[in-house]
Amino acid sequence: MNKLTKKEIMKNLEKTGFFEEIWEVIPGLDFEKYFSEAYKLDSEKKEENVLINLSGHDKITFQVSNIKDTNEITKVINELINHIINNSKWFEACKNGTSTLVLPALPILNSMFISAYHGLFGHFPTISWYIRDESGFRLVNTTIDLQKQRDEYRKKRMKLF
Fold this sequence. Notes:
Layout: H1 6-16, H2 18-25, H3 31-35, E1 50-53, H4 73-85, H5 88-96, E2 99-102, H6 107-121, E3 126-128, E4 130-133, E5 136-139, E6 144-145, H7 146-160
Helix pairs in contact: 4-6
């Protein structure tokens, strides 16, 4: 990924209205340093989106071991993260924000996995999910960009305080 100039970052942020709000909260922020990785220009996101199915449904790419109690959750999180790290295509897609994750159905596992993912890659993932209908499991034709959701709620938070 090419490093963005301050001018490119500011132009990108001006489109969202985020620039004015963050500037009021953090005067003198070094935009180039802070946002160059977090905000990519649309032109940099033209890479193929990689579906990473960790759900255990349909074409299984990774099967989560059975979790009998909460003490095993950290072990499973490490298995999931290591599986992504050890697959160079998946790792690059996660690093570049060009992946869509289909997560296992266990909510506590998802929450902890998303925290680990964010800590590792510096952004929240885009996610999708499977539904069960008369023909079995199928991937929905919808994704949720959790980083975009976070950014929208951060703007709302700034207006509250």
